[in-house]
Amino acid sequence: MSIGAGAGPGPEAAARPDQEPEPRRGSGTGPGPEPGTGPGPGPGQELTPAPPPASAAPADPGPDPGPGPDPSPDPGLYGPGSVTWQCHGDPIMWLAGVRALYLQALHPRAVRGVIANSDFRTDTWGRLLRTADFVGTLTYGTTEAAERAGARVRRIHTHLGAIDPATGAEFRIDDPELLLWVHCAQIESFLHVLRRSGVRLTPAQADRYVDENRVNARLVGLDPATVPATTAELAAYFAAVRPGLAAGSDAREVDAFLRRPPVHPLLVPLRALLWRPLATVAYGSLPDWAHTLYGRPAPAPRAVTRRLRLTGLLLRLIPARLRWQLPPGHILKAMARLGPATRPSPYTLRRVAAILNGPGRAQHDNGGGNTRWRSWLKAH
């Protein structure tokens, strides 16, 4: 049930100035005679004031308060009771996105499709912002906006193809095998970096995150039934595809690009100061087998974990309201739509774990349709 539903009578239930008054208790079971056509009041009966004529001017209601809050706001495909909603507002997600690019580049056909159809070399930051905009729309946008964004991506993919670097055969970008790889590499990277940087998710919440994002897979054209729904299924997927992964020339081009993305000459010192450490930590957080494929060493795992936690701590010191002002402002728009209590924060998951794990508290389908968490809204 949506917010506000059933809270009271709607405006149609309020009496109008020209409406007949209700019959008084004890004065009979039917309506009284029309004014001026029947006898006056009997003994002991009070005189009921006649209603004002319909032409009478209503009392001045004062200044117009403006439109009221939406009585049934749309929480979108995830909603504030989901793990995804609470986690995707964390600033460490930017670093997680870089890790996802490193991982995705290890699939020879997937990375060939990116290089053949992408302008990432000349529009580096524009591409990253468009990707962030897509994830933000799916997470915090309305259902209509998310479905529209997914339809746009599917429409673009139907017109794109590339040449397999191993066989020379042409392939489609919307090949389900490639879409599944890109999806799984992204979700595994997001979840891994969130947890390793200090976001404390229970095993059940981690599984819920993987399951929730099957709706994301549906929007890009996958059958949710073919997409991993738990962390164990996700790990099994990577074990199955690892023999076909490699770091060819395309992957090494992506590696070089991520280490030194093109910037204005005046910003080169800033790139070395800010970007390179982030890219180094993102690369270091990859699994050991990925480092082996790239042929480039990484810091010791404990050092990477310390750096991830420190990076997460420093990024979270930036006020959320300031971070969320960056265009296109999906989180602030969602809070304006649903109310301030829907402010995303991973710490919410610690306080209200029962909302996610307790029986009967959330309504959730199998990830293939609209995934909603309306009970959280009703409880808050």
Could you characterize what this model shows?
The protein is mainly alpha-helical. Helices cover 50% and strands 2% of the residues. It is built from 18 helices and 2 strands. The chain has a two-stranded antiparallel ribbon with strand order 1-2. β1 and β2 (170-172) form a beta hairpin. The longest helix has 21 residues, at 176-196. Residues 1-69 and 354-380 have low confidence and may be disordered.
Q: Main traits of this protein?
A:
single chain; 380 residues; mainly alpha; two-stranded antiparallel ribbon; 18 helices; 50% helix; globular; disordered C terminus
Structure summary:
This protein has 380 residues and is mainly α.
Strand order of the largest sheet: 1-2
Succession of helices and strands? HHHHHEEHHHHHHHHHHHHH
| Average pLDDT taken over every residue | 80
Q: What integer value in Å does the Rg equal?
A: 29 Å
The rounded distance between the terminal residues' Cα atoms is 13 Å
Low-confidence regions: 1-69, 354-380
Number of helices: 18
Amount of helix: 40-55%
Number of strands: 2
Largest sheet: 2 strands, antiparallel
Share of β-strand residues: under 5%
- Broad structural category: mainly alpha
Shape: globular
Lay out the secondary structure:
Blueprint: H1 83-87, H2 93-104, H3 108-117, H4 124-140, H5 143-157, E1 161-163, E2 170-172, H6 176-196, H7 203-212, H8 214-219, H9 231-241, H10 249-259, H11 268-284, H12 288-294, H13 301-317, H14 320-323, H15 330-338, H16 346-351, H17 353-357, H18 374-379
Antiparallel strand pairs: 1-2
Helix pairs in contact: 2-6, 2-11, 4-5, 4-15, 11-13
